[in-house]
Amino acid sequence: MTWNLAHTADTPAGPVAWGSAGSGPPLVLAHGWPWSSVSWHRLIPALAETHSVHWYDMPGYGRSGKRADQPTGLDVQGQVFAHMLTHWGLDRPRVVAHDFGGATSLRAHLLHGAEFDRLVLMNVVAMRPWGSAFFDHVGRHVDAFTGLPPHIHEAIVRAYIGGALVTGLDADDTEALVAPWLDDAGRASFYRQFAQADEGFTADIEPRYGEVRCPVTIIWGEADPWIPLDRGRALHGLMPGSDFKTLPGVGHLPQLEAPEAVLRALSGVLEN
Protein backbone atom coordinates (compact mmCIF):
# COMPACT_ATOMS: atom_id res chain seq x y z
CA MET A 1 0.00 0.00 0.00
CA THR A 2 1.71 3.19 -1.23
CA TRP A 3 -0.36 5.58 0.90
CA ASN A 4 1.51 6.74 4.00
CA LEU A 5 1.74 9.69 6.37
CA ALA A 6 5.44 9.54 7.05
CA HIS A 7 5.97 13.28 7.50
CA THR A 8 4.67 16.19 9.56
CA ALA A 9 4.60 19.88 8.66
CA ASP A 10 3.95 22.81 10.96
CA THR A 11 1.20 25.06 9.58
CA PRO A 12 -0.68 28.12 10.87
CA ALA A 13 -3.43 25.69 11.94
CA GLY A 14 -1.16 23.22 13.73
CA PRO A 15 0.70 20.06 12.72
CA VAL A 16 -0.29 18.38 9.47
CA ALA A 17 0.52 14.77 8.58
CA TRP A 18 1.49 14.21 4.96
CA GLY A 19 2.92 11.72 2.52
CA SER A 20 4.17 11.43 -1.03
CA ALA A 21 5.04 8.82 -3.64
CA GLY A 22 6.22 8.51 -7.21
CA SER A 23 8.03 10.76 -9.65
CA GLY A 24 7.02 13.00 -12.50
CA PRO A 25 4.86 16.13 -12.67
CA PRO A 26 3.63 17.15 -9.21
CA LEU A 27 0.07 16.15 -8.31
CA VAL A 28 -1.71 17.12 -5.08
CA LEU A 29 -4.75 15.25 -3.73
CA ALA A 30 -7.19 17.20 -1.54
CA HIS A 31 -9.63 15.15 0.55
CA GLY A 32 -12.96 16.27 1.96
CA TRP A 33 -15.33 15.76 4.90
CA PRO A 34 -15.57 13.46 6.84
CA TRP A 35 -12.72 11.68 5.12
CA SER A 36 -8.93 11.90 5.31
CA SER A 37 -6.11 11.30 2.86
CA VAL A 38 -6.58 7.54 3.21
CA SER A 39 -9.61 7.98 0.95
CA TRP A 40 -7.10 8.27 -1.94
CA HIS A 41 -5.17 5.09 -1.18
CA ARG A 42 -6.67 3.05 -4.04
CA LEU A 43 -5.70 5.68 -6.63
CA ILE A 44 -2.24 6.58 -5.37
CA PRO A 45 -0.31 3.51 -6.68
CA ALA A 46 -1.49 4.11 -10.26
CA LEU A 47 -1.09 7.90 -10.07
CA ALA A 48 2.42 7.52 -8.63
CA GLU A 49 3.51 5.65 -11.75
CA THR A 50 3.37 8.90 -13.72
CA HIS A 51 3.33 11.69 -11.10
CA SER A 52 5.02 12.88 -7.94
CA VAL A 53 1.92 12.60 -5.77
CA HIS A 54 1.46 14.59 -2.56
CA TRP A 55 -1.34 14.36 0.00
CA TYR A 56 -2.07 15.40 3.58
CA ASP A 57 -4.71 15.16 6.28
CA MET A 58 -6.41 18.52 6.76
CA PRO A 59 -6.07 20.09 10.23
CA GLY A 60 -8.73 18.50 12.42
CA TYR A 61 -8.85 15.34 10.28
CA GLY A 62 -7.12 11.96 10.14
CA ARG A 63 -3.72 12.01 11.84
CA SER A 64 -3.27 15.78 11.79
CA GLY A 65 -3.68 18.02 14.83
CA LYS A 66 -7.06 18.09 16.58
CA ARG A 67 -6.57 20.43 19.51
CA ALA A 68 -9.69 21.78 21.21
CA ASP A 69 -9.21 25.41 20.18
CA GLN A 70 -8.21 24.61 16.62
CA PRO A 71 -9.86 26.55 13.78
CA THR A 72 -10.63 24.16 10.93
CA GLY A 73 -13.16 26.03 8.79
CA LEU A 74 -12.74 26.28 5.04
CA ASP A 75 -11.16 29.70 5.41
CA VAL A 76 -8.31 28.10 7.38
CA GLN A 77 -8.17 25.05 5.11
CA GLY A 78 -7.61 27.25 2.05
CA GLN A 79 -4.71 28.96 3.79
CA VAL A 80 -3.22 25.61 4.82
CA PHE A 81 -3.49 24.25 1.27
CA ALA A 82 -1.50 27.21 -0.05
CA HIS A 83 0.97 26.76 2.84
CA MET A 84 1.51 23.08 1.99
CA LEU A 85 2.28 23.90 -1.65
CA THR A 86 4.98 26.27 -0.41
CA HIS A 87 6.22 23.67 2.09
CA TRP A 88 6.58 21.15 -0.74
CA GLY A 89 8.12 23.72 -3.09
CA LEU A 90 5.41 23.18 -5.72
CA ASP A 91 4.81 26.14 -8.04
CA ARG A 92 2.10 24.84 -10.40
CA PRO A 93 0.99 21.35 -9.39
CA ARG A 94 -1.89 19.41 -10.83
CA VAL A 95 -4.65 19.16 -8.23
CA VAL A 96 -7.42 16.60 -7.77
CA ALA A 97 -9.91 17.70 -5.11
CA HIS A 98 -12.92 15.94 -3.59
CA ASP A 99 -15.80 17.27 -1.47
CA PHE A 100 -14.56 20.09 0.82
CA GLY A 101 -11.21 19.78 -0.92
CA GLY A 102 -12.88 21.57 -3.81
CA ALA A 103 -13.64 24.73 -1.85
CA THR A 104 -10.28 24.40 -0.09
CA SER A 105 -8.26 24.34 -3.32
CA LEU A 106 -10.43 27.00 -4.98
CA ARG A 107 -9.96 29.34 -2.01
CA ALA A 108 -6.19 28.71 -2.12
CA HIS A 109 -6.22 29.59 -5.83
CA LEU A 110 -8.61 32.54 -5.87
CA LEU A 111 -7.80 34.14 -2.51
CA HIS A 112 -4.26 33.08 -1.63
CA GLY A 113 -2.44 33.11 -4.96
CA ALA A 114 -1.83 29.37 -5.38
CA GLU A 115 -1.26 28.51 -9.04
CA PHE A 116 -2.24 25.16 -10.57
CA ASP A 117 -1.30 23.48 -13.82
CA ARG A 118 -4.81 22.00 -13.96
CA LEU A 119 -7.60 21.33 -11.49
CA VAL A 120 -9.94 18.34 -11.20
CA LEU A 121 -13.02 18.83 -9.02
CA MET A 122 -14.81 15.60 -8.03
CA ASN A 123 -18.19 15.71 -6.26
CA VAL A 124 -17.05 18.91 -4.60
CA VAL A 125 -18.50 21.33 -2.08
CA ALA A 126 -18.24 24.60 -4.00
CA MET A 127 -21.74 26.07 -4.10
CA ARG A 128 -24.48 26.75 -1.58
CA PRO A 129 -26.39 25.04 -0.03
CA TRP A 130 -24.00 22.50 1.45
CA GLY A 131 -24.24 18.82 2.15
CA SER A 132 -26.90 16.50 3.48
CA ALA A 133 -29.94 17.04 5.68
CA PHE A 134 -28.02 15.42 8.55
CA PHE A 135 -25.14 17.86 8.12
CA ASP A 136 -27.57 20.74 8.38
CA HIS A 137 -29.32 19.22 11.42
CA VAL A 138 -26.14 18.60 13.41
CA GLY A 139 -24.86 22.04 12.51
CA ARG A 140 -27.91 23.56 14.21
CA HIS A 141 -27.72 21.29 17.29
CA VAL A 142 -24.00 20.65 17.86
CA ASP A 143 -24.24 20.82 21.66
CA ALA A 144 -26.75 17.97 21.72
CA PHE A 145 -24.26 15.65 19.99
CA THR A 146 -20.94 16.42 21.67
CA GLY A 147 -21.73 14.50 24.87
CA LEU A 148 -22.95 11.27 23.27
CA PRO A 149 -21.59 7.98 24.63
CA PRO A 150 -18.75 6.60 22.47
CA HIS A 151 -20.76 3.66 21.09
CA ILE A 152 -23.59 5.90 19.95
CA HIS A 153 -21.12 8.35 18.44
CA GLU A 154 -19.47 5.49 16.53
CA ALA A 155 -22.85 4.38 15.19
CA ILE A 156 -23.52 7.93 13.98
CA VAL A 157 -20.16 8.17 12.24
CA ARG A 158 -20.68 4.85 10.49
CA ALA A 159 -24.21 5.76 9.44
CA TYR A 160 -23.10 9.18 8.24
CA ILE A 161 -20.32 7.74 6.09
CA GLY A 162 -22.64 5.06 4.78
CA GLY A 163 -25.15 7.70 3.75
CA ALA A 164 -22.68 9.08 1.20
CA LEU A 165 -22.33 5.81 -0.66
CA VAL A 166 -24.16 3.99 -3.41
CA THR A 167 -21.69 1.10 -3.57
CA GLY A 168 -20.57 -0.63 -0.39
CA LEU A 169 -16.89 -0.33 0.52
CA ASP A 170 -14.34 -2.95 1.44
CA ALA A 171 -14.50 -3.46 5.21
CA ASP A 172 -10.90 -2.28 5.65
CA ASP A 173 -11.67 0.94 3.79
CA THR A 174 -14.66 1.62 6.02
CA GLU A 175 -12.58 1.07 9.16
CA ALA A 176 -9.85 3.39 7.86
CA LEU A 177 -12.39 6.16 7.30
CA VAL A 178 -14.11 5.71 10.66
CA ALA A 179 -11.08 5.19 12.93
CA PRO A 180 -9.78 8.81 13.17
CA TRP A 181 -13.10 9.96 14.63
CA LEU A 182 -13.36 7.41 17.46
CA ASP A 183 -10.81 8.45 20.09
CA ASP A 184 -11.42 11.40 22.42
CA ALA A 185 -9.76 13.96 20.15
CA GLY A 186 -11.50 12.56 17.09
CA ARG A 187 -14.96 12.61 18.66
CA ALA A 188 -14.57 16.26 19.61
CA SER A 189 -13.14 17.19 16.23
CA PHE A 190 -15.95 15.43 14.37
CA TYR A 191 -18.58 17.75 15.84
CA ARG A 192 -16.24 20.74 15.73
CA GLN A 193 -16.40 20.53 11.94
CA PHE A 194 -20.18 21.01 12.03
CA ALA A 195 -19.84 23.93 14.42
CA GLN A 196 -17.31 25.71 12.19
CA ALA A 197 -19.11 25.09 8.92
CA ASP A 198 -20.09 28.37 7.25
CA GLU A 199 -21.57 28.69 3.78
CA GLY A 200 -19.99 32.13 3.64
CA PHE A 201 -16.72 30.38 2.82
CA THR A 202 -18.08 29.37 -0.57
CA ALA A 203 -20.13 32.56 -0.98
CA ASP A 204 -16.78 34.41 -0.92
CA ILE A 205 -15.61 32.69 -4.08
CA GLU A 206 -18.70 31.59 -6.05
CA PRO A 207 -18.82 34.88 -8.02
CA ARG A 208 -15.17 34.38 -9.01
CA TYR A 209 -15.29 30.90 -10.54
CA GLY A 210 -14.97 32.41 -13.99
CA GLU A 211 -11.55 33.75 -12.90
CA VAL A 212 -9.90 30.34 -12.39
CA ARG A 213 -6.52 30.53 -14.09
CA CYS A 214 -6.05 26.93 -15.20
CA PRO A 215 -7.91 24.20 -17.11
CA VAL A 216 -10.69 22.63 -15.01
CA THR A 217 -12.32 19.22 -15.27
CA ILE A 218 -15.37 18.40 -13.15
CA ILE A 219 -16.08 14.71 -12.43
CA TRP A 220 -19.32 13.72 -10.72
CA GLY A 221 -20.72 10.46 -9.37
CA GLU A 222 -24.19 10.61 -10.92
CA ALA A 223 -25.93 8.97 -7.95
CA ASP A 224 -24.38 11.18 -5.23
CA PRO A 225 -26.85 11.16 -2.29
CA TRP A 226 -25.31 14.30 -0.75
CA ILE A 227 -24.57 16.69 -3.62
CA PRO A 228 -26.83 16.01 -6.59
CA LEU A 229 -25.67 15.88 -10.18
CA ASP A 230 -27.51 19.10 -10.93
CA ARG A 231 -25.14 20.92 -8.57
CA GLY A 232 -22.20 19.62 -10.55
CA ARG A 233 -23.79 20.81 -13.78
CA ALA A 234 -24.42 24.22 -12.21
CA LEU A 235 -20.76 24.46 -11.17
CA HIS A 236 -19.77 23.56 -14.72
CA GLY A 237 -21.90 26.46 -15.91
CA LEU A 238 -20.01 28.88 -13.64
CA MET A 239 -16.64 27.84 -15.05
CA PRO A 240 -16.51 28.67 -18.76
CA GLY A 241 -14.33 26.24 -20.67
CA SER A 242 -14.41 23.54 -18.00
CA ASP A 243 -14.93 19.91 -18.98
CA PHE A 244 -17.64 17.82 -17.33
CA LYS A 245 -17.62 14.04 -16.89
CA THR A 246 -20.03 11.81 -15.01
CA LEU A 247 -19.66 8.40 -13.38
CA PRO A 248 -22.92 6.41 -13.72
CA GLY A 249 -24.06 4.49 -10.66
CA VAL A 250 -21.45 6.08 -8.38
CA GLY A 251 -22.15 7.97 -5.17
CA HIS A 252 -20.33 10.69 -3.27
CA LEU A 253 -17.02 8.85 -2.74
CA PRO A 254 -15.93 7.79 -6.25
CA GLN A 255 -12.28 7.18 -5.35
CA LEU A 256 -13.29 4.27 -3.10
CA GLU A 257 -16.60 3.26 -4.65
CA ALA A 258 -15.27 3.06 -8.23
CA PRO A 259 -11.50 3.65 -8.28
CA GLU A 260 -10.97 2.12 -11.73
CA ALA A 261 -13.66 4.36 -13.23
CA VAL A 262 -12.02 7.40 -11.61
CA LEU A 263 -8.60 6.43 -12.97
CA ARG A 264 -10.09 6.11 -16.46
CA ALA A 265 -11.69 9.54 -16.11
CA LEU A 266 -8.38 11.01 -14.93
CA SER A 267 -6.20 9.32 -17.53
CA GLY A 268 -6.82 11.84 -20.29
CA VAL A 269 -6.99 14.80 -17.95
CA LEU A 270 -3.59 14.24 -16.31
CA GLU A 271 -1.65 13.33 -19.45
CA ASN A 272 1.07 15.76 -20.47
Keyphrases for this structure?
39% helix, 12 helices, alpha/beta, 17% strand, globular, 272 residues, eight-stranded mixed β-sheet
The beta-strand count equals 8
How many distinct helices?
Answer: 12
Structural class: alpha/beta
- Series of H and E elements: EEEHEHEHEHHHHHHEHEHH
What features would you describe in this structure?
The protein has 272 residues and is of the alpha/beta class. The protein is 39% helix and 17% strand. The protein has helices at residues 44-47, 74-88, 100-112, 133-140, 142-145, 150-162, 171-178, 184-196, 200-203, 229-238, 254-257, 259-269, and strands at 7-11, 14-21, 26-30, 52-56, 94-99, 118-124, 216-221, 243-247. An eight-stranded mixed β-sheet has the order 1-2-4-3-5-6-7-8, with helices on both faces. Helix 10 (229-238) links the parallel strand 7 and strand 8 (243-247). Helix 2 (74-88) crosses helix 3 (100-112) and helix 4 (133-140) packs across helix 8 (184-196). The radius of gyration is 17 Å and the shape is globular.
